[in-house]
Design goal:
The complex is a heterodimer.
Chain A (H helix, E strand, L loop, with lengths): L1 E12 L2 E12 L3 E5 L6 H9 L6 E6 L2 E2 L8 E4 L11 H11 L4 H14 L15 H13 L5 E5 L7 H16 L3 E5 L3 H7 L2 E6 L2 E7 H9 L2 E7 L13 E6 L3 E6 L5 H10 L3 E8 L3 H16 L1
Parallel strand pairs in A: 3-8, 3-9, 6-7, 7-8
Antiparallel strand pairs in A: 1-2, 1-4, 4-5, 9-10, 11-13, 11-14, 12-13
Helix pairs in contact in A: 2-3, 4-5
Chain B lengths: L4 H17 L1 H27 L4 E7 L4 H7 L12 H14 E6 L5 H9 L5 E8 L3 E8 L5 H22 L5 H6 L8 E3 L5 E3 L2 H35 L2 H6 L4 H33 L14 H28 L3 H11 L1 H8 L1 H6 L4 H8 L4 H11 L4 H29 L9 H10 L1
Parallel strand pairs in B: 1-2, 1-3
Antiparallel strand pairs in B: 3-4, 5-6
Helix pairs in contact in B: 1-10, 2-4, 3-6, 8-11, 8-12, 8-16, 10-11, 11-12, 11-16, 11-17, 15-16, 17-18
The chains are: A alpha/beta, B alpha/beta.
């Protein structure tokens, strides 16, 4: 069973098509990364998943059931901007949101205390939310999203405003949720995080899914097609000279980076350097980073759209 | 999905506790009755404060009026206000602060005016003979706003005229003292079943006004607080977290009920303190007699507050949901209060004609009925069927307004940026 399924889901705001008819499946378990540039439609998709917005068309199902039949206890949400009452005391706030997610009064108290302890914030329980630093508030937001142990937790840009120290406790709570079987869907701009954390991803641009699958599989698919060359001398070496082999090229004085076309061979690339009299000191077939893949996929999509 | 009342209850609880713990709750609970008390007593008390020495020149061209006016010690007719005692004291002090300066009949007015200019004089009273009224008086001053002083001078003039008239008619001037007396009318209110009780202005006029004031202020104060609360949740994106867990209707209902509970608590505090003061009567105020609220008034007050509050609060909630800034919300809040302001402006005519057709209409019409009906109930015996019909209409109106407001609230609460246009709002209402 999939944690989430979208079938022909679309949403428009006036003139803007925030999400075009879109199909997507999020498998159960692990972390699913929702990537894409600003304004790609990630947040809209998340809001439709949570029932905050209703799609114009299509169906969202959660854990195999239509979205509106799913109890709010099985979902958790961390919004991109602060979603906390600034004047409320931290402990009361956690208990309040716990109760709204179906916890009993005593269970809500217990979970709030436990969550604060795990985050190292127990001494802040009686303080007002607006007395906390940004990073601490973000940790509280994660507790709000996870304390009721939802089956699916949706985290919109969860790492914004976290310093490395806060990030450690934050990650620990996130890992604990994963161990308990929560499926985490998160959006982020930070590609290194995607590589470290996410099991599968969907790359969204202009309301469409442009790339989707398991991170390991995607990297394999794009993996050996990035080439880095360090060289010296040579005549007529420019991006144009490699246009038939590489679809994206960057030239520095003594270094060049290539992204090979689908049928191109890296050996042809090396031969061309040597043919033009360059002395190659280093030739490297690199694994494409998620960042390269991200940039390339978004650019490619833009070209098709134009 | 059906409404989950546990969610509503959790929201009511948060709303209630957060608001009751705020300092502003304590402050408004203490200050509101103090301000009301001050409004009633302050004007007279202030009159006691400012009594600068005043010198008035008297130019007597009649040959008789000057001394009579200057020696007259008139008594102001008693008013039955609770602050009547203060007024009498104010008069006495006014009298003490007043000095007359007698001028010859041929005194030059221009010279005296220069004294006004130089602030040696505060006023010039010119007395001329008048064939019919005996006396004609003209008062010159730099300022004509000292009404207590001018009132006192008028009383003195009339007393002097009366004495002169008596003399002309060949009557003993002592008759004047005999004539001073006045008939006071005892007010008796006849209640149902022929029961009577002593009436006075306090219980019969001030109390209904006070009740109306209380509803008016509570609805506006808490309505605006609700509107701003919705705005806070909306702008802080808290509403996203909330709406991922609860339905918009649950959120709106919880907020309205929570704030209404805060208002009721405030009533209860005032009521208990008021009851304590009434029973103890530390100032020994005689006019408190009959001031006890009747059970009917109390029931009507609470019922109209509750239903009327839900009526207005749901509009306020929708306003908060549609707007993005406080300033914008204020612009929309003002027209909402018209239904409360209109019966307030018509308060005196309402109390004078509590059974007039238009008054009955206003006390039935849902927008105005909370205030108008309270005024009527305080003033006269309103037929029970009218109260029943008015409450039923208010209840129906409330259901309708809440239904529409919930739709606007649901659509508006997640809107950011531009405020929606009226046609857009109408579309939301139709869309459901």
């Amino acid at each position: 069973m999939n944690a989430l399924e979208y079938r022909g889901v679309s949403k428009r705001f006036g003139e803007v098509e925030a999400v075009r008819p879109l199909d997507l499946e999020v498998p159960e378990g692990g972390i699913f990364g929702l990537l894409g540039p600003n304004g790609a439609g990630k947040t809209t998709l998340m809001r439709m998943t949570l029932g905050i917005l209703l799609p114009d068309a299509g169906e969202v199902s959660v854990l195999g059931r239509p979205r509106n039949e799913v109890s709010s206890a099985s979902l958790g949400y961390l919004p991109e901007e602060r979603g906390l009452y600034p004047k409320m005391k931290v402990g009361e706030l956690l208990r309040f949101f716990g109760r709204l997610r179906g916890l009993s009064a005593s269970e809500a108290s217990r979970r709030a205390a436990e969550g604060l302890r795990r985050m190292g914030l127990e001494q802040w329980e009686g303080h007002r939310v607006d007395e906390l630093s940004k990073g601490m508030q973000q940790k509280i937001q994660l507790l709000v999203a996870l304390q009721h142990r939802p089956r699916v937790a949706i985290l919109d840009e969860p790492f914004s405003g976290l310093d490395p120290v806060n990030a450690e406790a934050f990650m620990e709570v996130l890992r604990e949720a994963l161990r308990q079987g929560t499926t985490v869907v998160l959006s982020t701009h930070q590609m290194d995080q995607v590589e470290r954390l996410c099991h599968s991803i969907a790359l969204i641009d202009r309301g469409r899914v442009v790339l989707e699958g398991q991170v390991a599989e995607i990297r394999r698919r794009y993996g050996s097609r990035a080439v880095r060359v360090e060289f010296d001398g040579g005549e007529g070496l420019s991006a144009e000279a490699f246009a038939d082999l590489s679809e994206s090229t960057a030239f520095l004085p003594n270094e060049a980076r290539f992204f090979l076309r689908e049928k191109a061979d890296s050996a042809d690339l090396l031969r061309r350097f040597l043919d033009r009299g360059a002395r190659v000191s280093r030739f490297e077939e690199a694994q494409a980073s998620m960042h390269d893949i991200f940039v390339r996929a978004v650019k490619g999509e833009g070209r098709h759209a134009n | 999905m059906r409404t989950d009342w546990r969610n509503v209850l959790a929201i009511v609880r948060r709303e209630f506790l957060e608001r009751v713990r705020k300092k502003s709750f304590l402050v408004s609970t203490i200050l509101t009755p103090l301000i009301f008390g001050a409004l009633m007593v302050l004007p007279a008390a202030l009159a006691l404060l400012r009594h600068e020495e005043v010198t008035v020149a008297v130019v007597d061209r009649t040959g008789w009026a000057g001394p009579l006016v200057m020696e007259a010690r008139p008594e102001r007719p008693k008013t039955p206000n609770p602050e009547g005692g203060l007024e009498a004291e104010a008069d006495r002090r006014q009298e003490a602060a007043l000095t007359f300066r007698a001028e010859p009949a041929g005194a030059d007015l221009e010279t005296l005016k220069r004294d006004l200019e130089a602030r040696i004089l505060d006023g010039i009273l010119v007395l001329d003979p008048d064939p019919q009224e005996e006396l004609k008086a003209t008062y010159f001053a730099k300022s004509l706003t000292n009404t207590p002083l001018m009132g006192l001078l008028t009383l003195k003039l009339n007393q002097a005229r009366l004495q002169q008239k008596l003399q002309r008619l060949g009557l003993d001037p002592k008759v004047a003292a005999e004539l001073k007396g006045r008939v006071e009318m005892n007010l008796v209110k006849v209640e149902k079943g022929g029961k009577t009780r002593k009436g006075n202005l306090f219980t019969d006029l001030f109390r209904p006004i006070l009740l109306a004031f209380v509803i008016y202020f509570m609805v506006i104060m808490y309505g605006v607080a609700l509107s701003n609360g919705v705005l806070e949740e909306k702008n802080g994106k808290i509403v996203e977290v909330l709406l991922s867990a609860v339905r918009p209707f649950e959120l709106m209902a919880g907020k309205i009920a929570g704030i209404a509970a805060v208002g009721l608590l405030q009533y209860l505090i005032w009521f208990l303190v008021g009851a304590g003061l009434y029973l103890a009567n530390p100032l020994n105020v005689a006019s408190a007699e009959g001031g006890w609220m009747r059970p009917l008034e109390m029931a009507v007050l609470v019922l109209y507050f509750l239903v009327g509050f839900v009526f207005y609060a749901s509009i306020y909630a929708a306003v908060g949901a549609v707007c993005t800034t406080q300033q914008e919300a204020q612009q929309w809040q003002t027209p909402v209060t018209f239904g409360l302001v209109v019966p307030f402006v018509l308060m005196m005519p309402t109390l004078q004609n509590p059974h007039a057709g238009w008054v009955v209409f206003l006390s039935l019409f849902p927008l105005t009925s909370p205030i108008t009906m309270l005024l009527r109930v305080g003033a006269v015996e309103v037929p029970p069927w009218e109260i029943g019909a008015s409450l039923a209409l208010l209840l129906l109106g409330t259901l309708g307004v809440t239904w529409v407001a919930a739709k606007i609230y649901r659509a508006g609460i997640l809107m950011t940026g531009k405020r929606p246009s009226i046609p857009e709002i109408l579309r939301w209402m139709r869309a459901g």
